[in-house]
Amino acid sequence: MRDILEYQNFIYLSLLVLRVLNFFVLSGFIIYNAHKNDLSQPNKIYDYIKKRFVRIFPTYWMVFVIVYILALFSSSSNVLPKDIATIVKSLLLFPQNIDIVGGTGAPVIAVAWSLQYEIIFYIFFALLILNKFTFFIFLLLFLFLQIAYYGIISSFPISFFLSHYIILFFMGIMVSKISEYSLKSIFIKYIGSIGFGLYFIIAFDTMLEYNLLKEYRIICYGVASSLIILFIVRTEIEGYNFKKFKKLNLLGNASYSLYLLHYPIMVVVAKIFVILDLVSYKITTAVIAFFVIFFTCIIASIIFHLKIEIPVIKFFKGKIL
């Protein structure tokens, strides 16, 4: 299956915007927008924790169990975690230093490594709700350690907690604050152009393996994502109605399902292409696989969102909230 997987870098890049935009910068933007009136109000912390739990864990657990069972009866069973401790930590999105295929530190659901950072950010923001001054002390300490130990500490778990990915969440908060101020239309257009331009420059640098921006890739993606989000938000504030695109709104609502499902679907489609002996066509196979994966991911995620994710969230909301 190696041939087709070599071309999946191109396919995975097409979904990278979800990986960076939705679960780092955009998460910081959304969480701040949703809870900015709860800052320094400790009585709001329990509602905050319950809402975050319901949004993340039930759907993740459903996908985890489904993928685990399917992988158990496939050729991928040898890479599945067997010990209870690793499985429990994976279910709780607890950061782990484990050697698995891809090196993400998240077995079964490969993209769950980003959800581990999501949980860390939720804890940071919980401090902000408890006391915003305490939060800023932790933030200053974090930024100081980022600068003082940049490129020095590479061992787990310090490398995890000082990762640049955490900075992207704070970029999202900054975008939320900046979006509250009015900007001239010409500036909004420039912001969008620079954001999209920077994003594609980094994407092609990655895809073509020039790696000119490798050392600063995470931060660059964060800056590009921040500019894109600011452009979209200010465009909507200026009067453009994005809600008229009902199908895109549905896809946006299903984005979490899409995020969890896209990688397992990529693997399944790749295996099908291998079984059908289509990998010998190389670039033609890559293009066909791209469109098959693209539409399969969208259709599957929307169905999963409507038939499973929404009912599960409603159930947990009724029980917990």
Describe what this molecule looks like in 3D.
With 321 residues, the chain is mostly helical. It has one domain. The protein is built from 13 helices and no strands. The model is unreliable at 1-11 (pLDDT under 50).
Task: Provide tags for this entry.
disordered N terminus, single chain, globular, mainly alpha, about 325 residues
Largest sheet: none
Unreliably modeled segments: 1-11
Name the shape in a single word: globular
Order of helices and strands: HHHHHHHHHHHHH
Q: From the structure provided, what is the oligomeric state, counting identical versus distinct chains? A: single chain
Mean pLDDT: 81
What percent of residues adopt helix (DSSP H or I)? over 70%
Supply the number of structural domains. Answer: 1
Secondary-structure class = mainly alpha
Measured by DSSP, the beta-strand proportion falls in under 5%
Number of distinct beta strands: 0
Distance between the termini: 46 Å
The number of distinct helices, counting runs of at least 4 residues, comes to 13
How large is the radius of gyration?
A: 20 Å
What's the SSE blueprint?
Elements: H1 2-14, H2 16-35, H3 45-72, H4 84-91, H5 112-130, H6 132-148, H7 158-161, H8 164-178, H9 185-207, H10 217-237, H11 246-253, H12 255-275, H13 283-320
Helix pairs in contact: 1-12, 1-13, 2-5, 2-8, 2-10, 3-5, 3-12, 3-13, 5-6, 8-10, 9-10, 12-13
Summarize the structure.
This protein is mainly α and 321 residues long. The chain is 73% helix and 0% strand.
